[in-house]
């Protein structure tokens, strides 16, 4: 799980310009998530969840090695369903979006939930071995 303030991303984007979002998000991710601070912050929050799921940043590390967006793994999505309900019940975001995620060089794919609550993006992700992932389309949950 990760919590991130989009305002911090907005300040970094203001300071570093387009290079900041290009460093965090691949061209495909920028197309899907957008290049505004909220989209970049959501992408970054999901990627931070992936790092936590791995236990540490891969070595060598590139933000682009952690993929977000696209098709979500059904099996990982099912594991996240209870977490989404629990977060909503705990006064979390009223609505979560579901996205796919992967760490391809490790043979992992999964699903992530993310939503905005006041001044924070909350995200949670699950990774599974690629062979155990049934695919599903991205959608709201």
TrEMBL record:
Stored InterPro entries: 4-PPantetheinyl_Trfase_dom_sf
Top-level taxon in the UniProt lineage: Bacteria
Protein name: 4'-phosphopantetheinyl transferase superfamily protein
Species of origin: Nonomuraea cypriaca
GO terms of molecular function: holo-[acyl-carrier-protein] synthase activity; magnesium ion binding
């Amino acid at each position: 799980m990760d919590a991130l303030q989009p305002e911090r991303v907005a300040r970094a984007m203001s300071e570093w310009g387009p290079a900041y979002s290009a460093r965090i998000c691949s061209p495909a991710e920028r197309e899907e998530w957008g290049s505004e601070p909220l989209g970049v912050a959501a992408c970054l929050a999901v990627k931070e969840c992936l790092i936590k799921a791995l236990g540490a940043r891969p070595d060598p590390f590139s933000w682009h090695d952690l993929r977000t967006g696209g098709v979500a793994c059904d099996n990982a999505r099912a594991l996240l369903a209870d977490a989404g309900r629990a977060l909503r019940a705990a006064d979390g975001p009223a609505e979560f979006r579901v996205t796919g995620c992967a760490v391809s060089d490790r043979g992992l794919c999964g699903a992530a939930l993310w939503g905005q609550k006041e001044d924070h993006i909350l995200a949670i992700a699950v990774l599974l071995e690629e062979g155990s992932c049934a695919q599903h389309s991205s959608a709201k949950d």
